[in-house]
Structure formats: C-alpha cells, structure tokens
Amino acid sequence: MRSIIHFDELNSTNEYARQHLEELDDFDVVTCDLQTKGQGQFERIWYSSNKNGGNIYASLILKPDDITHLNELTRYCALIGAKTIEKYGLNPTFKYPNDILVNGKKIAGILAKSEFFGQTFKGVVVGFGINLNLEKDELIKIDQPATSIFEETGKNVDKNEFLNLFLSNFKKDYLDFIKNGIKGEILC
Fold first, then answer.
1. C-alpha angle with apex 169: 75 to 135, nearest 5 degrees?
2. CB–CB of 133/72 below 8 Å?
3. Axis crossing angle, helix 159-180 with helix 73-86, rounded to the nearest 10
4. CATH class assigned to 4-183
5. Helical spans, DSSP H, in the chain
6. DSSP assigned state of 139
7. Where are the domains of the chain?
8. What does pTM read for this prediction?
9. What are 104-155's pLDDT values in tens digits?
10. To 10 degrees, the CA torsion angle through 172, 176, 177, 182?
11. Is there a contact between 110 and 77 (Cβ–Cβ < 8 Å)?
12. How many CA atoms lie within 13 A of 89 on its CB side?
C-alpha cells in the first residue's frame, strides 16, 4: 500500500524524496500544492502555481528488486501520464525523452533519478509535473509553448482525482513493466 505525503509548499518534491529516500517506502508519493524550486530536465525551472484548482507536483518512490528495465522508466511514466490525460478527452503525444504534449504544447514532464550507494541500488524517484488548471495568463510565463487540461477543455480538474487515477494506471501494469519493459503488452 502506498502513502501520500502532502505538503502545502516544498522547494521540490524530487529533492525532498531523494533526501528522505531511506525512510520512504516503495510506492510512497510526495506531493505539494506549490514548488518553489521545481526542476525539469537539465535543471530547467518548472513553473508552479496553485491557482484555479492547482496542478500535479509529485514524486513517486520506487524500490524494485529487478532494475533491468530501469532505463525505460521515464517512458513508462510518460505512457501512464498520457493514458491518464486521455481520460479528459485529449490526445497527448510525446517529445522524447520525458515530455507529454497536447496540440504541440507541453502539458507534462517526467524526471526520474536513480539513487545508488556505491554499486547498491537504493531506489528511484520519479517526479512528474502535470498542468491541470493553469490559465492562459500563467501559461505565457513558461519558457516554451505550454498548455493545461483546463486551457484545452475549459474544465477544472480535481488534482486528487487525477493523481489517484494516474497512480492506479501506473500500478496496474507496473509488475509487467518491471518484468518485460515496455516491449510487453503494456499500453500498446
């Protein structure tokens, strides 16, 4: 069973999860309403807002015994994110290696960081930011074309409902993914 550890504000869910990896369990999730120093790939700033119902700023802790397909984890998470976004009537695409786009604009990003102590695998922290309810005046503050489910549909998204759906989708095929990677019959 997973625990969701929620904060009103954090510098970064990934940073918190990495600093507390030893005490966090497999499938624990760290979330917050607002990140003050959220980062994407190449340490790019991830814009954060809690207006209009908020967005997803979360990190999932994974501690699998088999790490054979660990290099495919970001892609697996992007597939799960896209599958979840599709439930809101949108048709996401991907920008390799870690972005989810809708109508050519970024709606989500995934950042996975593995933690080792010497040669010993300690776990992986999978951070994901998903623009649920950003409005146009906030989207233009982002340094690349971006969108949100709200911008695309005109409807607010309940972030707890979205997170629970994402986690349910993630867990459903996770054991198959760990065993076979994304070459199996996951999300074909």
1. 80
2. no
3. 140
4. alpha beta
5. 13-19, 73-86, 136-139, 149-153, 159-180
6. H
7. 4-183
8. 0.89
9. 999 999 999 998 888 889 999 999 999 999 999 999 888 889 999 999 999 9
10. -110
11. yes
12. 8
